[in-house]
């Protein structure tokens, strides 16, 4: 029988800082971070799925749902087999998935979503500026052109935002994404530490 992973979703528009915060959280014992975009970027670009990823992401579009969820599930399974992610010890922090309601439904049997951290950014232009800066540092096909970034925002507003409505309002915590990384982290920890403690024992004991 497959386990349902105890999960927190990091949710927010492109550039809202999900990856930055997820990485920090993932370094804390008892938390395990996985970014779906990162898994895609690490695929061999010569593989079938690697090619599909480049085709869609370079246009700012989502990779088709079935392929995405299948890849995600295989990846999670591999991590549990390798023992890097321990479902009985770690709270899973997911970023970048589910990206639409269809994915949320497909993930239902794999995830027990305990909390959603919604990184709220009211200034779209500020976020677009962040993405442009990131594009200069990291070699990302999806942030290289302004029109692709804007397309990613459209996709977020039309397809991803409705995911929030799919889950109960009571588990959604809004955090202002425009604060400093430390401030944003502080607010995220306020929400997730009690959840981690109520579902797991101290991982260092
Ligand atoms: P960001 O967080 O900056 O929006 P990601 O690194 O999460 O970007 O994703 C980069 C690209 O990878 C997306 O634009 C999309 O093409 C693809 N991708 C990532 N996650 C998913 C997903 N859950 N479903 C479909 N496509 C995805």
Structure description:
By secondary structure, the chain is of the alpha/beta class. The protein has a single domain (about 5-195), classed as Rossmann fold, CATH 3.40.50.300. Helix content is about 50%, strand content about 15%. It has helices at about 20-25, 35-40, 50-55, 65-80, 100-105, 125-135, 145-160, 165, 180-200; strands at about 5-10, 30-35, 90-95, 110-120, 170-175. It has a 5-stranded parallel sheet with strand order 2-3-1-4-5. α4 runs parallel beside α5. The relative contact order is 0.21. The model has no long low-confidence stretch (mean pLDDT about 95). Adenosine-5'-diphosphate binds near residues 18, 36 and 63.
Short description:
The protein has 205 residues and is α/β, with parallel strands linked by helices. Helices cover 50% and strands 16% of the residues.
Rg calculated over all Cα atoms:
16 Å
List the bound ligands.
Answer: adenosine-5'-diphosphate
Under CATH, the topology can be stated as Rossmann fold
Count of β-strands: 5
Give the low-confidence spans. Answer: none
Helix coverage percent: 40-55%
Mean pLDDT: 94
Residues in β-strands, percent: 15-25%
- What would CATH call the class? Alpha Beta
In angstroms, what separates the terminal alpha carbons?
Answer: 28 Å
- Strands of the largest sheet, in order across it? 2-3-1-4-5
How would the global form be characterised? Answer: globular
Number of helices: 9
